[in-house]
Write a structure and sequence with these properties.
The structure holds two protein chains of two kinds. Chain A is built from eleven helices and five strands; from the N terminus they run αβααβαααααβββααα. Chain A is mostly helical. The chains are: A mainly alpha, B mainly alpha. Chain A: GO terms for molecular function: manganese ion binding; superoxide dismutase activity.
Chain lengths: 229, 217
């Protein structure tokens, strides 16, 4: 995923190809330009997820909301670099919530776009292979899993996300919710994320969020989810 | 404990009375759907809690605290919010309706404009759903700006004077992602007379009939 989150300069890319770690390259050369986070293109048209998610929601969500996370993350990382160069530890710490929020927003939305697809082009249906087995091992059946996932989405108190994650210690999959833009990090690996912020559905579903949660399965890209396993 | 049933308070103005700052569609959904849902879930939680208490099931009681905090908070916060708004045409929408509070805000922030700028900036800094508040510390009497996340109420010892809902459902149908315009528009429909009354009131008085509910969360 990191390749889609950042577009680095040519010099940076060749440095990376040469095997230098980003941090080492940064330290070694003052002319190194750190890559900026950029808005990834959607892998389908804004209207392609209709009627599940309206074209207007997709356009605002991608062009405005996701873009704002990208812009604010870049601003925060510039401030962090300045604080690092001044060895200002307090300023570095103070920036962490902003980086978590906007960096999380960028990561979460990027994963979200990828794990959706138009129903005529891979969206909906059922998972296959190891993913199917993993879901059935944890939740008995796909239908039971969806019911529990929808309940988790409905139980979010405020803004947030529900994820199917893989516990990298046990190898098992499970449903977890995250507040606001907290990203799936640490021992959990994100497999499938559904955005439960009101901006993800309100123009179309208003307060009837349960209808959005039920409908979104029609555009889940199980092939992408399976590849993440 | 008493299994008091809470009900939706009527708005003190028509659904379209806050236009153009807040559309009638938003007000209708916000009041009849969102606020009503908090009340329904609050009543259900209180009923479950009464059952747990009668069975002396402490674990079940503790598990219900989260739902109580969220739904009672949602009821209290929205009730305070409706009260501190007013149609722009009302004389109460002018800061002159709050002479003592306006003087205190000017003394504390430099000017009313600076207070409003700081309040708006605070709202825009919220990360996720939540509320922005002007509160008064009940010990020092100082005016302070603070936020609460999701449906948390203002902390104990802080008397709410002005609350602004910054959940997306409060503005999205009209303002989309332009939340700054919503935040700035609030100042045209702020009920300064109510703010002055809260500033002059004791702590419990601000919550009115919900004072008992507030003390239970």
């Amino acid at each position: 995923m990191s390749a889609t989150l950042f577009r680095t300069s040519t010099a940076a890319r060749s440095a990376l190809r040469a095997g230098a770690a980003t941090r080492a390259a940064s330290a070694a050369s003052t002319s190194f330009v750190r890559g900026k986070a950029t808005l990834p293109d959607l892998p389908y048209d804004y209207g392609a997820l209709e009627p599940t998610i309206s074209g207007k929601i997709m356009e605002l969500h991608h062009k405005n909301h996701h873009q704002t996370y990208v812009n604010s993350f870049n601003t925060a990382t510039e401030q962090l670099q300045a604080a690092e160069s001044k060895q200002d530890i307090a300023a570095q710490i103070a920036l962490q919530p902003v980086i978590n929020f906007h960096g999380g927003g960028h990561i979460n939305h990027t994963l979200f776009w990828e794990n959706l697809a138009p129903s005529k082009n891979g969206g909906g249906g059922e998972p296959a292979g190891q993913l199917k087995t993993a879901i059935e091992t944890s939740y008995g059946s796909l239908s039971s899993f969806k019911t529990k996932f929808n309940a988790a989405l409905a139980g979010i108190q405020g803004s947030g996300w529900a994820w199917l994650v893989k516990d990298t210690e046990t190898g098992q999959v499970q449903i977890r919710t995250y507040a606001n833009q907290d990203p799936v990090v640490g021992k959990y690996k994100p497999l499938l994320g559904i955005d439960a912020w009101e901006h993800a559905y309100y123009l179309q579903y208003q307060n009837r969020k349960a209808e959005y949660f039920s409908a979104v399965w029609d555009v889940v890209n199980w092939k992408t989810v399976e590849k993440r396993l | 404990m008493a299994s008091a049933k809470y009900s939706l308070p009527p708005l003190p103005y028509a659904y379209d009375a806050l236009e153009p700052s807040i559309s009638a569609q938003i007000m209708t959904l916000h009041h009849t759907k969102h606020h009503q849902t908090y009340i329904n879930n609050l009543n259900a939680t209180l009923a479950s809690q009464a059952t747990a208490t009668s069975k002396q099931d402490i674990v079940a009681s503790l598990h219900l605290q989260n739902a109580l905090n969220f739904n009672a908070g949602g009821h209290i916060n929205h009730t305070l919010f409706w009260e501190n708004l007013v149609p722009a045409s009302s004389p109460n929408a002018q800061p002159t309706a709050a002479p003592k509070l306006a003087a205190a805000l000017t003394a504390h922030f430099g000017s009313l404009e600076k207070f409003q700028e700081k309040f708006t900036a605070m709202l825009l800094g919220l990360k996720g759903s939540g509320w922005g508040w002007l509160v008064q510390d009940t010990e020092t009497g100082n005016l302070e700006l603070t936020t609460s996340r999701d449906q948390d109420i203002v902390p104990v010892g802080k008397k709410p004077i002005l609350g602004v809902d910054f959940w997306e459902h409060a503005y999205y149908l009209q303002y989309l992602n332009d939340k700054a315009s919503y935040a700035k528009g609030i100042w045209k429909i702020t009920n300064w007379k109510v703010l002055e009354a809260r500033y002059e009131s004791g702590y419990e008085g601000v919550f009115g009939p919900l004072a008992g509910l507030r003390s239970s969360i």
